[in-house]
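Dear Dr. L.,

I hope this message finds you well. Following up on our conversation about the binding site, I have prepared a predicted three-dimensional model of the protein together with iron/sulfur cluster. For your records, I am including the exact sequence and ligand specification that went into the calculation, followed by the structure tokens. Please feel free to forward this to your student if that is useful.
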Amino acid sequence: MLDQSINRRNFLQFLGIGTATIGSGFAVPKIIAKTANGVLVESKSEYGGFQVEKLANGKYPYECDPDVLKRMSEKNNIFSRNSWDPARRNRPELTENLTYENLVKGEGKLPNQNRLDYALMAASWCASSIGSGWDIQSSRVRSMSFDRIGSWEPAGLDMTWEEASLAVKHAGLFFGASLAGIAKLNPLWLYSDNYAPSRMDRERAIPVLAEGDRFEQANDAWYIPESMNRVVAIAFEEDYIGIANSPGRLASAAVGNGYSRMAFTAFALAEFIRALGYRAIPAGNGVGLSIPIAVDAGLGQLGRQGLLVTPKYGPRVRLAKVITDMPLVADSPINFGVTEFCEVCKLCAEHCPSGAVSDGQRTWKGKSSANNPGVLKWYIYGEKCYDFNGFSCSNCKRVCPFNKPNNSWLHKMIRQIIKGRVGALNKLMVNLDQASGYGEEVQDTEFWMMDGYKSITARESM
Ligand code: SF4
Ligand code: SF4
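The resulting structure of the complex is given below.
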């Protein structure tokens, strides 16, 4: 590592810019105390006011059974199974009919939605629809392409790897991510194969881990070499008011907007890394499991509803990732008391209209072949969730106390959890929060006519 930038670095540190912090701001997380597993820090800009334990020495905020946990086949996720699994062929009609005819023309018109909602929902997916997947056979470069564009050499980086890692995360934020973190890639989080419903897609690309430096397409497979052992996890805040409209169409628009931003940002970040001379594979939901990758990269913890819960935005995020061989410095996984809080809270289970969220204890295996066993967690019944309205619902994000901005009572409670002072959470706190009206469905008209509405890009935190 070359280091002729010491004066510049000191200057940046003077400004509060030159340390390895991420998120929307640049403030340095304040160190509160050392803990048994790492160090306790606090940062309003990065962690939304929560105290967060940064885990050290290879510790993670989850438990795995190494004898059971295997790479998951993409063929087994709920979207894939809908196209090949006979058990899913005769599935019930979606509880909600999301077609234009139903939503707009009026026959089965549902409350809390109008033509504006439908237009926002349809438009929100546009970039994602044209940008996801890869198109190797036709040689078209699409946003999630594995192809390397350009032939830059990895030379001329006048900085330490810590600084380069910070720069890569800042590039991710520049291109539109709300959070960025880096992890060493755990190969268990990569899919064991790729599945796409059409025969042509199936022949295209199967990510296969390979020894050495091989990175090529052969025998209808893309070989991902073990040298591509870093991953940049990026998260995209979904609109707070949009999600608050769930299960209305504005929530679906918030989700689609996240997918479209994922497509652009992952593509652009991969190109940035390639332009530095390294290989990069951008991916949305494909290639591997985004949630455990994001947990490893220190963006959050797994919640009862099976989603990543981040300190700053709660579960109101979408995820993407870029796999690379650039030797980036990994961030620490974090613990901020989500598991202990979820044990008592259960609001997502109570408000799930399909019964997909467990209200019981964590288990080592799920009830469905869409679940990958071997991790102690709350498994989601994916079939029930999908059959409600095809994943347009976001009730389990809407009601989550971690979703609430400026959540001072939760900040205080989590502090007590982390300090080990609260053995059993007081469910009364959760009930009081509900009684205050938080988590109720917001009518779409409130969104369209709101005085002073600010988009997620204009609003640091509400
Ligand atoms: S999205 Fe809706 S149906 Fe699916 S798990 Fe969440 S609350 Fe339940
Ligand atoms: S709603 Fe409650 S139980 Fe569900 S993920 Fe959020 S905190 Fe955990």
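In brief: Residues 1-26, 132-143, 199-205 have pLDDT under 50 and may be disordered.

With kind regards,
A. P.
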